Write the structure tokens for this entry.
Amino acid sequence: MKYARITGTGGYLPKRVMTNKDFEAIVDTSDEWIRERTGIIRRHIAADDEKTSDMGLAAAREALQMAETDAKDVDLIIVATSTPDKVFPSTACIVQRRLGISGFAAFDVNAACSGFVYALDIANRFVRTGGSKCALVIGAEIYSRIINWNDRGTCVLFGDGAGAVILQASDEAGILSTHSHADGQHEELLHVPAGISSGYDQVRQESAFIQMKGHEVFRAAVGVLGAIARETLTANNVKESDIAWLIPHQANLRIISAAAKKLKLPMDRVVVTVDEHANTSSASIPLALDVAVRDGRIKRGDLLLLEAFGAGFTWGSALVRF
Ligand code: COA
């Protein structure tokens, strides 16, 4: 059976940067508190006229260029997002049209911050069973639109951006295994209460914004990220020391450090972008991957462990021979 191999990565960050200091003028917070409790220093915020598809498209174009692949070769598009352009059509269909291609399956996946690893899982299954030869997998989010800018407990944590990968069928090893999980019991610890069938007419009121019990979410994240790492290593008969790079979801440096510690990995083998990007939800892993590929840290043949955690709760991982 053929492997799905990552042949290109891409990323996009909006031009506007907001520092922690900028938040001091908005809510009762400080640069020191945000750095100490989260590791975040700055984040990118989309322009008023910028949409999720704009960012996803830009990241996709970069990934196609790195893969030296024409958009016409793409035969599957999955966009991981919980902040799509529209209720429908899917952001994936919008990206497809804007790439000037059509005819094949294009759809969105919403698993909150775990969206990209879920989408990678699905695309991997398409490629391995012959349903796709060249898949475009995007994580793209505009959380600045669902942030309550008066809530200091959440507004400082998120940023906007997009990341993308091209997955191609190959006889060479690529994605070795994918693992996706959810436990819907924890809905109210991290959610946006309003939705299409629940309070849609009230959007722009508080229920349209992220609400989170940060401490409980923190504890759950540390627990499941440890478990998913063990599950992934065991499934592949791989040791912690075989991992060249851990690419975790970028929510909080303390969660990332705890995950690395459980794997006995030094922080210099962990890709960290939360300081520069904050939490970009499903864009955070493909963006971190792209940063480390482009700056030369990640090299062909490296063994990568991707792991994510998000609202739902959802969590997932992928072991990848790059
Ligand atoms: N600036 C200053 N103080 C703040 C603050 C801010 N931006 N946000 C919260 N606080 C305050 C709280 O109000 C609380 O004050 P109180 O004790 O007077 O009530 C105090 O800081 C401690 O709050 P707590 O929630 O216990 O802090 P914490 O150490 O858990 O850190 C988070 C808060 C949000 C940074 C942390 O819980 C976290 O990162 N959670 C996970 C978030 C996450 O990853 N979400 C996405 C998952 S995909």
Summary: The chain has a mean pLDDT of 96. Residues 214-236 form the longest helix (23 residues).
